[in-house]
Amino acid sequence: MTVKKLIGQLHLWLGLSSGLLVFIVATTGCILAFEHEIKRVLRPYQYMESVNNHLLLPPSKLQAVAEKVIDKPAKGVTYNGKGRSAIVSFYGAAPDYYYQVYINPYSGKILKVQDEETDFFHFILHGHYYLWLPEEIGQPVVAYGTLIFTILLITGLVLWWPRNLNKANRDKSFKVKWKAKWRRVNYDLHNVPGFYALIVSLILALTGLIFGLEWFANSVYWVTTGGKSATEFKLPVSDTTVARRFNSPTDLVWQQLSEKKPETAGVYVSCPEKASETIFAYVNYKPDTYHKLDYYTFDQQTLKPIEMGGPYSGPYAKAGFGDKLRRMNYDIHTGAILSLPGKILAFCASLICASLPVTGFIIWWGRRKKNTKKAKSSVIASVAKKSAYRPTVRIS
């Protein structure tokens, strides 16, 4: 067996074993690429007219208003910039719950209480991450399925690669022969779009692996940071041995960060429940994306800044290449790093990825039936040949 045939067998069986997983993950990825754009239509309460010469209410006021509606402790308050409503978030486990309360940040009026656990995009996200299975089962299945898909992309390129680039091979490799029989059209639809979407598909797969496989994420971080070890994201604790110096520390953190940011930027501040918890906050210079953020952590008692280290600490401008790349990972994965053109690229690549298991299965099934017919024809021909030479027995 030649190397190319061996690669072909590997491509075939890996493709058949992971086809349904790839189809689900890629299809849900198509939808998630335009999550924010769809929500802009479905959730008009995210937006509001900004009021000139009116001051925004501090986080403690918005937290108090929201906690009257949701009888649970708030986790954080998000100000999404000029012309956007504020969001107070509530989430927890056992049992799981996740609420977002949209509030007018000027008047404190509640605009909408959104149960994110029942939201359509939460359902799609669960399928994309876990195949709607329990997290401890679905997460590794999706992660290693994505690794298999990465191998499929590379082996597919090897199988696609033409021996020479004469006109006939160029037409076969780079064009779909629409006027051919449907089996040939299906074959071309598996190869040609797959080649054109290869680079973007590889980027989607590799950024997905950073979410799914810790050893892969740590390896990428080590390489891109020049040998730094990735540390687990864990907030430090506040110094509870000293007396609290401020009455509303979250308000002071929000005020401090708001004074330095442009009007279009957003601010998030956490709402610590215990005296030992620190205040985690960030400034988001490009709301609806997640990479261009300045991260801060403050001691709750003294408001002393605490340096956490790792990719999610400190201003974005001061982060090293590897730290910036890790922060960019989600936005690269969704295409949001390039705004709308990037999302369109991610959508198209995901759509092609979703089609590959379908067209690949049809190719395999067609060849299987063809081989079965050939085998039957060979058996019939062999029997007929033997019958032609069989001696005639005369019964007297």
Largest sheet: 7 strands, antiparallel
Strand/helix succession = HHHEEEEHHHHHHHEEEHH
Shape: elongated
- Quaternary structure of the protein: single chain
Trace the largest sheet across and list its strands: 4-3-2-1-5-6-7
DSSP strand count: 7
How does the helix and strand content classify structurally? alpha+beta
Q: Unreliable runs, pLDDT <50, ≥5 residues?
A: 392-396
Question: Beta-strand level of the residues, as a percent range?
Answer: 5-15%
The percent range for helix content is 40-55%
Radius of gyration: 29 Å
Continuous helix count:
12
C-alpha end-to-end distance: 56 Å
Average the pLDDT over all residues and give the rounded result.
90
What does this protein structure show overall?
The chain has 396 residues and is α+β, with helices and mostly antiparallel strands. 54% of the residues lie in helices and 10% in strands. It is built from twelve helices and seven strands. It has helices at 3-33, 35-42, 59-69, 120-130, 135-160, 167-174, 182-196, 198-212, 214-224, 249-260, 321-334, 339-388; strands at residues 76-79, 86-92, 97-103, 110-115, 266-270, 279-284, 293-298. Strands 4-3-2-1-5-6-7 form a seven-stranded antiparallel sheet, with helices on one face. A hairpin with a 6-residue loop joins strand 1 and strand 2 (86-92). Helix 1 packs antiparallel against helix 4, helix 1 (3-33) crosses helix 5 and helix 8 crosses helix 11. The longest helix has 50 residues, at 339-388. Residues 392-396 have low confidence and may be disordered.
